[in-house]
């Protein structure tokens, strides 16, 4: 009797074993699906960050061009360019689209001009060109990841209240003091690096 009872116990545990194995397999596949989705979201966010930064950097380049032209013309308004205003963002869309494409994504919103804590910037929304992929969760094979980001252009220099645009001006910048002399300016290449006058960073 004990021999038949043993075989009976073994026979009853086999379905339980198969059932538990199936549950574990399903859980493993579910975790894999969530990992795929998380990876797609992270990649999408990286693409959005890059696109927003590219848009803001194009505006910073425009600010530097305007500053150089104003100094070359010895215009009285050259100090205004250091406030971070005056750009129209003509190349922002192209720059954002290029960086999004480099990250296998497309811009689907923006770049839209915005302000963060009083500083100008751009907001961009992107969508990946790839999908999450086939998983046990229905619909992921057609689902693309989306993300948005905002980048800010922030002046790094303080202009003295008594600054005379017709004379050398000593700027107090984050990286140290910078002197710009409009009377001794010959070439925009003489300007400090753009990053010394303006920081471009993602909004918190």
Overview in brief:
The protein has 204 residues and is α+β, with helices and mostly antiparallel strands. 42% of the residues lie in helices and 26% in strands. It starts with a helix and ends with a strand.
Folded structure, characterized:
This protein is of the alpha+beta class and 204 residues long. The protein has one domain. It contains 3 helices and 7 strands. The strands form 2 sheets. A 4-stranded antiparallel β-sheet has the order 1-2-3-7. The longest helix is centred in the first third of the chain and has 71 residues, at 2-72. The radius of gyration is 29 Å and the shape is elongated.
Please give the structural blueprint.
Blueprint: H1 2-72, H2 92-102, E1 105-116, E2 119-131, E3 144-155, E4 157-158, E5 169-173, E6 176-180, H3 194-197, E7 198-202
Antiparallel strand pairs: 1-2, 2-3, 3-7, 4-5, 5-6
Helix pairs in contact: 1-2
**Coarse morphology:** elongated
Helix content: 40-55%
Count of beta strands: 7
Radius of gyration: 29 Å
Terminus-to-terminus distance: 74 Å
Record keyword descriptors for this entry:
alpha+beta, 204 residues, elongated, 42% helix, 3-stranded antiparallel sheet
């Amino acid at each position: 009797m004990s021999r038949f009872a043993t075989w009976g116990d073994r026979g009853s545990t086999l379905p339980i074993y198969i059932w538990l194995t199936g549950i574990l397999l399903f859980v493993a596949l579910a975790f894999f699906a969530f990992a795929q989705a998380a990876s797609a979201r992270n990649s999408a966010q990286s693409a959005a960050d890059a696109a927003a930064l590219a848009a803001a950097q194009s505006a910073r380049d425009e600010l530097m061009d305007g500053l150089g032209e104003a100094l070359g013309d010895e215009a009285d308004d050259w100090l205004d360019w250091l406030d971070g205003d005056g750009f129209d963002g003509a190349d922002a869309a192209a720059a954002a689209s290029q960086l999004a494409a480099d990250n296998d994504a497309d811009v689907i919103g923006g770049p839209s001009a915005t302000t963060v804590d009083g500083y100008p910037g751009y907001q961009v929304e992107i969508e990946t060109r790839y999908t999450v992929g086939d998983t046990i969760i229905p619909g992921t094979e057609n689902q693309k990841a989306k993300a948005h980001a905002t980048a800010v252009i922030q002046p790094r220099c303080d202009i003295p209240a008594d600054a005379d645009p017709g004379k050398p001006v000593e700027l107090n910048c984050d990286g140290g003091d910078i002197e710009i002399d409009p009377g001794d300016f010959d070439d925009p290449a003489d300007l400090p690096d753009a990053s010394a006058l303006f920081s471009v960073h993602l909004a918190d």
